[in-house]
Specification:
mainly alpha; 3-stranded antiparallel beta sheet; RNA-binding
RNA sequence: GCUCCCUUCGUCUAGAGGCCCAGGACAUUGCCCUCUCAAGGCAAGUACACGAGUUCGAAUCUCGUAGGGAGCGCCA
């Protein structure tokens, strides 16, 4: 099986509809598609599926592209950069679809349907009540030319339906699910052109993949049962079939496909919280995909390690604690300068260097800024205990010692050790808590140097 | 309702009949290191949904059952 994935270059694509921002699940399929193309030396296409004029917005298209670029997912052909199959926005491909619709109609493979939304709604309802699958009843399929003419004369609008042949077996090999077999009789005639004249997903998505030279379609599991419809269209048109692979969906805590109610699920939200693209990519790389390396992978190394044969069928649960792990790793790998600009507050270099190991998201830095130049929040319970068990005398001694030692922690602790007899954690912890308000944090020695002497003295005295 | 898909530790996964009384990673807990945290090292616990069958032998094959998901839209 693996030989199947090795040899020739594959062309893949990402075909989002610009009706919202880039979702993590979509980002993952885009990423896998890109990886597969890169790994094989092929091409990756971005196509915008904006035939639904009501819901599509230019703003979303731009956001989508910005999010993709933020993640470092660059395309070889797309609406903004063009390419051999331009245009890459389906709203601009109407003429192409029109010639195909005409062919299908002339061949008797598609027919105009005059049913209204209400008709169809009612029909589906009736079928459901009768315990039958809600499929198009075929009302308009066998209309005579006269009947059609009569309806046109009445000014009725029509959509175009694909005439699904009966008792046809549609087979294909899904790269993740293996051999698939569907019976056409289970599929009702479906709309390929809306009454507005625009193409529907089943149609334009399939023919564009074919004509744009896409060799491997990677998409979510939810499209698996749509595939036979698209295959019938392609076959009817005599167009080349791409390979298909349906990856298990990305789901939330509750096992339901990722959506708004699971908290932040859009790329933009993670970006705004300060997650690093390489961290997100490392996480996504292992969701529904078995990596052959456990450790950190730089994005540049990922294509070589992508294994299409190891794509997951089962849904993968998005778990932020794993993302956090990669985020830590990503922060570790940044230079001090990069961290500085990532934190975005113009922090001095010595501060950045000091806190970098205690920060996984930019929000974590604010507490340390307060330690260095600001006011400490009230102590937590365990911190209070540490202060209490050290006792007032300890802090009185500490304040006195500080007047001698200044911000030299070594000197301060040496003096204190002498005067109180304390050592080790018993000595350091109360100092740390008094000085920083927390039991954990960066190196105390440097922290002490960074705060003003007045601040340090005041903090020590406040517990005396 | 009909059709299709899915089911291995808490989570991501390895596993394509014996190498598996199931391996790794994240998370968790403990220990080491250390003023603390992080990092690093070591260690621990926890999983083949269930039931039949095929086989000398099944996480792996077959059939059922249960649970989850998707599609059946003039949404993609």
């Amino acid at each position: 099986m693996s030989a199947l994935f090795d040899s020739s270059p594959v062309t893949t694509r990402f075909a989002p509809s610009p009706t919202g921002s880039l979702h993590l699940g979509n980002a993952r399929t885009a990423f896998f598609s890109l990886l597969w193309a890169r790994r094989s030396g092929g091409r990756f296409i971005l196509r915008i599926e904006d035939t639904d004029v009501e819901r599509s917005q230019l703003r979303f298209r731009d956001e989508l592209m910005a999010d993709l670029r933020w993640l470092g997912l660059d395309w070889d052909e797309g609406p903004d950069i063009g390419g051999p199959s331009a245009p890459y926005s389906q709203a601009e491909r109407g003429e192409f679809y029109a010639t195909l619709f005409a062919r299908l109609e002339a061949d008797g493979r598609a027919y105009p349907c005059y049913c209204t939304a209400e008709d169809l709604e009612l029909s589906r309802k009736l079928q459901r009540m009768a315990g039958k699958p809600p499929r198009y009843a075929g009302t308009c399929r066998y209309l005579t030319d006269e009947q059609r003419a009569e309806r046109e004369a009445r000014g009725l609008k029509s959509s175009l339906r694909f005439a699904v042949p009966s008792d046809q077996i549609i087979e294909f090999v899904d790269v993740v699910h293996g051999p698939q077999r569907f019976v056409s009789s289970d599929i009702g005639d479906f709309i390929i052109r809306r009454d507005s004249g625009t193409s529907s997903f089943f149609f334009c998505n399939a023919v564009d993949d074919s004509v744009m030279g896409v060799t491997q379609v990677l998409r979510g599991d939810d499209h698996l049962t749509n595939t036979p419809r698209q295959l019938m269209v392609l076959d009817a048109l005599g167009m080349r079939r791409p390979g298909y692979g349906h990856v298990g969906l990305l789901v939330g805590e509750d096992g339901a496909p990722l959506s708004k109610r699971h908290g932040s699920t859009s790329a933009l939200e993670f970006r705004e919280r300060g997650f690093l693209p390489a961290a997100v990519l490392n996480h996504l790389f292992r969701l529904g995909h078995a990596s052959d390396v456990d450790g950190w992978l730089s994005p540049a190394d990922m294509p070589a390690h992508f294994r299409p044969g190891h794509l997951g069928r089962a849904p993968a649960r998005f778990d932020e604690s794993q993302l956090m792990h990669w985020q830590k790793a990503a922060v570790e790998r940044m230079s001090a300068g990069q961290i500085g600009s990532w934190l975005g507050c113009g922090d001095p270099a010595d501060f950045v260097e000091l806190v970098r190991h205690n920060v996984v998201l930019p929000a974590d830095a604010v507490a340390w800024r307060a330690v260095v130049r600001g006011d400490l929040p009230p102590l937590g319970e365990s911190e209070q205990r540490i202060v209490a068990s050290a006792g007032r005398e300890f802090f009185a001694a500490a304040a006195a010692a500080f007047d001698q030692s200044g911000q030299d922690l070594n000197l301060l602790t040496a003096l204190l050790k002498e005067r109180t007899g304390r050592k080790g954690a018993d000595l350091f912890m109360p100092l740390r808590v008094a000085l920083t308000g927390q039991a954990h944090g960066p190196e105390l020695k440097i922290l002490l140097k960074l705060m003003s002497p007045e601040t340090a003295r005041r903090r020590l005295k406040s517990h005396a």
